[in-house]
Amino acid sequence: LRKDDPGQGGLHRQRASGQRPRGDRVHHRRGRIAAAFRESGTNTKKGWNNMELARGHVLICGGTGCTSSGSEQIIKEMEAQLKANGLEKEIKVVKTGCFGLCALGPIMIVYPEGAFYSRVQVEDVKEIVEEHLLKGRIVKRLLYDETVHEGSDEIKSLNEVTFYKKQMRIALRNCGVINPEVIDEYIAFDGYKALAKVLTEMKPEDVINEIKASGLRGRGGGGFPTGMKWQFTANAPGEKKFVACNADEGDPGAFMDRSILEGDPHSVIEAMAIAAYAVGADQGYIYIRAEYPIAVKRLQIAIDQAREYGLLGENILDTGFTFNLELRLGAGAFVCGEETALLTSIEGKRGEPRPRPPFPAVKGLWMKPTLLNNVETYANVPMIVTNGADWFKGIGTPESPGTKAFALTGNVRNTGLIEVPMGITLREVIYDIGGGIQNDKKFKAVQIGGPSGGCLTEDQLDSKMDFDSLAKIGAMIGSGGLVIMDEDTCMVEVARFFMSFTQRESCGKCVPCREGTKRMLEILERIVAGNGKPSDMDELRELADMIESTALCGLGKSAPKPVISTMNAFEEEYLEHINEKRCRTGVCSNLRKFQIDPEICKGCSKCARNCPAGAIEGVLKSPYHINQEKCIKCGACMEQCPFKAIHIEK
């Protein structure tokens, strides 16, 4: 996160350098970029002198998480308070994308000081304006505590904060930094510089060779070499070719692609234009799920702005290159994350996978050669073109260069969006960046890669987070979801949850996935209900083998992974459910067994009076007991006991 290193920009260094107002810095950069574009023949339809200078900037997160917590109202109140105090021309309010620390939202950062205000409410805005922006006194009670040096009033750079200091932002470089709805902001931070370089200095084969040399691998799951995919599409015969972007992010707990599109949509547009030039395409499509309304809105704004500036459409930058881009909204079908199902849906048909080969690079959209990458993969491309393949290759590991964005969720202190160099360990992600397990509980497992991934356990915490290292232990990065689970998590229920999701989202085209996942789900539901049989374990493994070897698409083949990985790592929990009819965590309600500790019980009878089944027996001022045959496992007794004498037997 050094200030002088391209691509390593943290949130702090990109908006302010030391105490220098951000406006002067961006004004200087805008003049430099404008000159570069003029020298390269750029013919934009807008002037370059419309930058608004200000002595201070208030950055407010406008991502989905903070928006749902009321950041839009905070922005309106901030603008109203600035106007009421005559500051509207001195202080610029900037609605940005995600800062990453989603658990602390709504987030506001005030520059040039870099004051990081967390969990801001509308009623706090007046105090921030009157104290901080008018009098220069930072409102300490609202500061994120890690940003303040102990024993002093000095504010830390975000690069020094635990959550950020091990991160390295490339795909997320502009998220939380620029206003994603203003193309001038993107251009001021070297936006479209890579496109100008490609169109004026490089041949299509040069671009492909640069991507190949960088070692960039697809960030959507499988890690296929990106440059090789581009080469296949370029070599495919045919005059008409397409490029497409997979923004159909459907994994539970994953929001990396959504955040990039909400915070930096132009990075994907620029990359797709570069890819189109490289493979010989003139039309592109971004396939995005309709459940991402903010991302859809900002993408459309960005496309319209790029077209207005002459960066999309005909004769881009006066080079004769033509590229048009359109959005296609998906209806939320998980299977449309699979490339052939996605392309089929773009064509207006039911989203179902096609047999491969032929692969999309040869026969994709309307049976024409089509290049398809996901959002994060594209977001890396402009930085590679600008800084060179060797720069990118120097990050991460030799076989998995660069960085990877992850959505850190579950039982971890610092939930949110992160981007780290490939090869970082799982332990570093959970304990250094994530801050460890909530409530000082013990770590139990992490579900990686969504429904298509598996569970990793404590003895795998030092595993490196890269494509090949995880493949060796039977896991996969997938799209980048990380769901952290503590000691109170039932792994059988986790397997049932993911199988329920996969079975519900199966397109039904092939029998192994349609029927096999249904049978596996029925067995898992039987086990968590307390009706499991000793033969269930063998049946689950047999069904899993059948699905993995015969399902039509990758999503179907990977559907049993959560079940098999939890069976391998937590076999004793399955056996307890089946043989002992016991769930050690108490999560499976049918297997709960409530007990009253006679040494703690005071005989107050409150539990008995609140039991809907009349299962609690005893006399006043003497310990009560629970009749297990009558108990309906509702837990009302435990909730009502004032002495915490009732617990679930483990």
Count of β-strands: 18
Q: Which structural class is indicated by helix and strand composition?
A: alpha/beta
Largest sheet: 5 strands, mixed
Average per-residue pLDDT, rounded, comes to 89
Q: End-to-end span in angstroms?
A: 46 Å
Name the overall outline.
globular
Low-confidence stretches: 1-49
Q: Provide the spatial order of strands within the biggest beta sheet.
A: 7-8-6-5-9
Calculate Rg over CA atoms.
Answer: 27 Å
What is the overall number of helices? Answer: 26
Query: Beta-strand percentage?
Result: 5-15%
Helix proportion range: 25-40%
Structure description:
The chain is an alpha/beta fold. Helices cover 39% and strands 14% of the residues. It contains 26 helices and 18 strands. The strands form five sheets. The protein has a five-stranded mixed β-sheet, sandwiched between helices. The chain has a five-stranded mixed β-sheet with strand order 11-10-14-12-13, sandwiched between helices. The chain has a four-stranded mixed β-sheet with strand order 2-1-3-4, with helices on one face. β12 (443-448) and β13 (454-457) form a beta hairpin. The longest helix has 18 residues, at 22-39. The protein is globular, with a radius of gyration of 27 Å. The model is unreliable at 1-49 (pLDDT under 50).
